[in-house]
Design brief:
The complex is a heterodimer. Chain A is α+β, with helices and mostly antiparallel strands. Among the domains of chain A are: 85 residues, 2-Layer Sandwich (Uridine Diphospho-n-acetylenolpyruvylglucosamine Reductase, domain 2); 109 residues, Alpha-Beta Plaits, CATH 3.30.70.3450; 94 residues, 2-Layer Sandwich (Alpha-Beta Plaits). Chain A is built from 16 helices and 20 strands. In chain A, the strands form 5 sheets. Chain A has a 7-stranded antiparallel β-sheet with strand order 15-12-14-13-18-20-16, with helices on both faces. Chain B folds into 4 domains: 80 residues, Uridine Diphospho-n-acetylenolpyruvylglucosamine Reductase, domain 2; 118 residues, Uridine Diphospho-n-acetylenolpyruvylglucosamine Reductase, domain 3 (2-Layer Sandwich), CATH 3.30.465; 60 residues, Alpha-Beta Plaits (2-Layer Sandwich); 58 residues. The longest helix of chain B is centred in the N-terminal third of the chain and has 14 residues. The radius of gyration of chain B is 21 Å and the shape is globular. Chain B starts with 19 loop residues before the first strand and ends in a 15-residue tail after the last helix. The chains are: A alpha+beta, B alpha+beta. Chains A and B meet through strand 9, helix 7, strand 11, helix 8 and helix 10 of A and helix 1, strand 8, helix 5, strand 10 and helix 7 of B.
Chain lengths: 474, 361
Amino acid sequence: MAAIAELRDLLGSDRVLDDPLERRLYSKDASLMRGDPVCVVFPGDAEQVSAIVRIAARHGLPVIPRGAGTGLTAGASPMTGGIVMSMTGMNTIEIDPDNQAAWVGPGVINLDLSKQARPYGLHFAPDPSSQSACTIGGNLANNSGGPHCLAEGSTTSHVLGLEFVTADGQIHEVGGLAPDQPGLDLRALLVGSEGTLGIATRILVRLLPIADDVRTLLLDFPSVEDAARTVSDVIAAGMVPAALEMMDQRMVMAVENWLGAGLPTDAAAVLLAEVVGSTATVESEASIIAEIGRSNHARNVVIAVESEDRELLWKGRKSAFGAIAQLAPDYYLHDTVVPRTRLVETMAGVYEIADRHDLTMLNVFHAGDGNLHPLIAFDSSDEDVARRVKLAGEEIVDLCLSVGGALSGEHGVGVEKRDLMPSSFSALDLDAQARIKDVFDPDHLLNPAKVLPQGSRCFDFGGVRREVPEGAWV
Amino acid sequence: MGVTSLSDIETKIEGAPEGVHVAPKTVDDVVRVLRWATESGTPVRVWGGGTRQKLGHPPTPGIVLSTGRLSDIEVWEPDDLTVVAGAGIGVDELESRLGEKSQTAVLPEHPGAATLGGVLATGRASLRRARLLGPRERVLEVTMVTGDGRVVRSGGRVVKNVSGFDLHRAAIGAFGSLGVIVQVCLKLWPVPRASATISNADPESVSRITRPLALLETNDAWQLFAWGTPTDIDEIVAKTEGEGRAGLHWPEDPRGSYRWLLRVPPGRTAEAALRVRPWRFLAIHGSGELRLASEDVEGATDLRGWAEDIGGSLVLVDHPGEDAPLDPWGSPPSTLDLQRRLIAEFDPARIVNPGRLPGGL
């Protein structure tokens, strides 16, 4: 294939893979959807990314940027074929301690950044459960969250600037260390655009000081309602803890069986709360949370002070998805958000849906911001089960939207939720989004057919038509 | 002008330049105004509280559109820490309502007549920005009316959401070029039980306080702002050896006929404060934002050169004359072409604040 030969000339043979096995390895992310790429390329810098994009454009091949492939919505699955561009080779880290920031390559692994920043007393706040594998480029593309974005915000709150390549091969830079750069904030559009507007080649992230002291609390409850009420009461008491995570009984049992972290398997729900700050702060906040928990029938409250004890509690939370492997070969992990006040009723509805479809469901989620992660463990080789898993998933999304929720809190839209976008947005809202795509990528070369359903661009909305102004590019 | 179709919403806006003044009562009214303006190619100035009308290159308006009547609080869910309000609500009014249940939207502390839509469209930040971040972090959902009269909503009414491109965040500081903001859902913060303003603190010990709510420097004082539990606050006051006063007593922005915003990398804030010392200034340490007042236009040119060299900017916010004595924004951004094409999709006839943005967009 001519395109592959050109790519080999540009990058060298070892950085263009096209044998069937390698193509198969890069044919999907962590979702259940698989595509078939023409080849996989590994650029080393922005100039190479630009050159690859130009070659792809000449041959009419889509480009699908990919980090570690931990995404759950097929955002990095090459559903339309084309060139998978693995960013993992672009993994330099330049820490700027004076400005509490770092310029990083998109292929830097999330946890590696925090490890490198540690000697400076800094860390990168977004911490998805996959942080030991997922990349900053992937975090940027999906606007990833994690337990600690309750107080600190998702990735978008931590991206100060970026260098990116557009579909025409141009290299741009937006944002920077100084706040509020004059003009439109294109950074806001690029973060969370799932590689559909541009390919990030360097990312300027904010680093936060590591807190002086930390307390991690584990509270166990006789009911999900009591745990959820504790979450609301903590917020009402004027606190936004660093994290407020919930696991239901089935999840606790799965994790405990696997890890032996000492979690209470007879509790209906456990709440993991973390407070950070000075020693006086964390001590007073931890005791207030414990008190609120007890007033909501918490049976037991553990306050972990030492870092190894805290890490064990977090290991239980962050290993949750790994623990599922004991139950079934596959899992389908959902990601929706509901207003915190609707948490209890939504959870009841979610359990009802799983029971009705006779599915094994476990829950571990970011309770503090109402971000649910119902997880269905199943065997995809059983077609009837797979069909019910899909149906249940759609019902869960409908339920969450019906209480004023959102389609996705942190995993993205990708292909998985693309065709559900009209249930969240009007035709005009989607048209506006499609216009943004067309400005950055008029030929839909970058990660095409993701995020926005086909036909989002409505050319006749009943509004006013005008001549295209000078300088506009259509 | 043939604007009889707008006569039902015509009004007189105090302090606004000449033109047809309208105050829409509904979002549909805004649609009507903007469609009319697009059809007739009439420039529109959007008017909140009128506190930032000199910022950028203000257009000579045919229409001045006041958001003042779009000022309802539609939903406030204290337990969800969200509020949905019309763009025209006064920041003072909104914050004092939220304060009734010990919550805040972290909007500017001394807003004057500024409205919610105004502070967002112009990108005005809170003095708490080093700790709680800037104006883009306040919005969860924005409903706006594009220049050609489409009602577009982006985001959602939940605190975490990644569905679709974040047009609502891009609308912050966009001066209506992507759409006139008509309604906003804001993320709120609970106000802790105790707070203090600490003056005359020992600078060495202040630097050991991790992430204070704000550390502000003016020409004659340093002030540390803290909130938290009562134990917390007592500890911080003791640690800094300063004079603690209960409550948050925010300083006013420096006054003067020429007012400026200097932005530098956060680590250069102290250096910037030294450099602007002859001017009246308020520096927000940890954020890189300094608010300045000075008539020294020549000095401003030098200061701008220095700021741009280190990746920052110096923006003229207010001046006494008709025309700004120098480009109010400084050097145009490198992504001007992308910005121009983006705006063309939302305001094809370029009628909302035309030319106000950097690079004459």
